[in-house]
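Because discrete structure vocabularies remain unfamiliar, we first show an illustrative case, written as a sequence plus integers encoding its fold.
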Amino acid sequence: MASDVTDRRTPPGLLQTVDRALLVLLAFERTRPDWGVTEVAEEFGWDTSVAQRLLATLAGRGFLVSDPATRRYHIGPAALRLGRLWDRSGTLELLARPVLEELCRRTGDHVLLCVPDNFHMRCIAAVEGRSGPLRYYPLVGELYPAHAGATSKSYYAFLPDERRHLLFRGRPMARFTERTVTDPDRLEEEFHQVRARGYAWTVGEYDEGVATVAVPVFLGREPYGSLSLGGAEERFPGGPEDRLEALRQAAHLLESRLTTPPRRPGRAPRTRGGGSGRSGG
């Protein structure tokens, strides 16, 4: 299915035309970057005239761009503008913080949510564990190198192979500890191992004596970032296995919060006299 929105019915009380336009936008993804009018009509079961008007309206406001040679539609600059506003809005941290706090409560570890930033992962939300600060400076805003540590490896392992090769091949990579891997071929082997088991586990690759277990966070089928637990190596005497269930549950909950609209609160019934329905006492 082209879109990860499984229920395409317009919820009661909402505008059907607006909802359909948003469904069209959500259908664009890396594996399906362009659409034609007939394809949209067939995908959603609409008349071709409806699909044409929706696509033309979105293009008229800059959310889509029409290729005059192929008459196919691509994502437009207005979507880029909203994406940049989202990155700076603080909304992601607002949505993620309750999930991170609950994961910290369950494990006692430091919890980090990171997203890619060039050849690094940037921490955008964090909760300190019971053992006290992991750094002498705030975790939020720190950049983790793409080749060192589970926080980064859990994200880059799930990129398409050709895209990852472009990032890692022919690039100098710093060695932070004696355990830091800088050989591209060995890194590629590790990425395949991470992808096969679904999580990354490292000890002392970026910081001496620090162990980290991390899983990817997806938006639909696309890797978006990583969620990781970290702490002193001695906190993980048996490895990461006893944390994996809690970590995966938190990642799934976070994915749901990022892709599923919150429930709309029900309205209080109005009184016959037109009042708000609130009691006077």
Observations:
- The chain has two domains: 16-81, 90-259.
- Residues 264-281 have pLDDT under 50 and may be disordered.
- Strands lie at 34-35, 64-67, 72-75, 110-117, 120-127, 143-145, 200-203, 210-219, 222-232.
- Residues 78 and 128 are 37 Å apart (CA to CA).
